[in-house]
Amino acid sequence: MPAILSPELPLYIDSTMLTCFRSCPRKFFNEFCLGLRGEGMSLDLHCGACVATALETMYINIHELGHSFSDSLLRAEEAFLFQWGDVEPRTRPGKNGPIAISAKSRERTWEILLHYFAKWPPHTDHIQPMFNLGKPSVEFTFALPLTHDTTGYDFPLHPSGQPFLYSGRFDMLGLYNSQPVIKDEKTMGKTPPANWSETFDLRNQFIGYVWACRHLGIPVIGVVVRGISILKEEYHLVEILKSAYTSILLDRWKHQLARDLFRLVDCWNTSYFDFDFGDTCTSYGMCQYFHSCRADEPETWLKDFTVRHWNPLAKNPIA
């Protein structure tokens, strides 16, 4: 096993970590307390971070620095290429040579970003960034203490004695029809399904974003989700507005968050994180810890992992 093994219970908690803990506490322990990850890079996370870098650079150059569209596009491309580096999709053998498993290549992703800027030009986009101290609110980041004063609910303290910090990062705090709104991009490797909009109705990530903004005194009406579908032969750019974030739903979310954190602290204090033994083990291909969970000696499988701790405030949380 890697020479780490002193687990740490994260102080910063985000939606990805919560979703993992709810699905399988043992997976949460391996991934977020030990920081164990396979040696390969997550192309999905890397692609999303590069898209975020291109958008952020474009908006800063347009809205803060006052550069022209063409000059801003050149700077966005430069930042995108630098962020991407030499990462390429994994391949599989084909009749005429290696075939990329994913369409999320550097060239293909930038090509689709050009379509994005054509569809939603920064100067005339119907969502314009809000400003704070003269700077556009892009890559909006927060980390808020979970206390009774901030939430109205009792939360457990982190074992360090400090409150947990609910954290997140989204692409833009903007104005939509003159009303504050959260804008977040989602890169996909498939065509958006017919029920794509409904998949966000109870998404923990977006409920948490709305709660954080309203707690900070920003009366956001909801979340605009822009889907960027990157396929080999086609692409899709879609936009939806989710606005049904009532006070009752936010209270329900906070109540569940408190219950989950009490359970998390109990797992930590008793030094036992439960196994799922269910769909989590085989979903999305297979859990990366599958073989360790079924082995008599888990260390024989975990020793090949590397240690990269999750940072919920970074563009690429495991970079």
Topology, please?
Layout: E1 12-13, H1 15-23, H2 25-33, E2 36-37, H3 43-64, H4 69-84, E3 91-92, E4 99-100, H5 106-119, E5 127-129, E6 131-132, E7 135-136, E8 138-145, H6 148-151, E9 165-176, E10 179-188, H7 204-215, E11 223-230, E12 235-242, H8 247-270, H9 290-294, H10 299-302, E13 306-307
Parallel strand pairs: 1-9, 10-11
Antiparallel strand pairs: 2-13, 3-4, 5-9, 6-7, 8-9, 9-10, 11-12
Structure in words:
The structure is a single chain. The protein is α+β, with helices and mostly antiparallel strands and 319 residues long. It has a domain at 126-274. Helix content is 37%, strand content 20%. It has ten helices and 13 strands. Strands 1, 5, 8, 9, 10, 11 and 12 form a seven-stranded mixed β-sheet that branches. Helix 1 (15-23) crosses helix 2 and helix 3 runs antiparallel to helix 4 (69-84). The protein starts with 11 loop residues before the first strand and ends in a 12-residue tail after the last strand.
Keywords:
10 helices, 319 residues, two-stranded antiparallel sheet, 7-stranded mixed sheet, alpha+beta, single chain
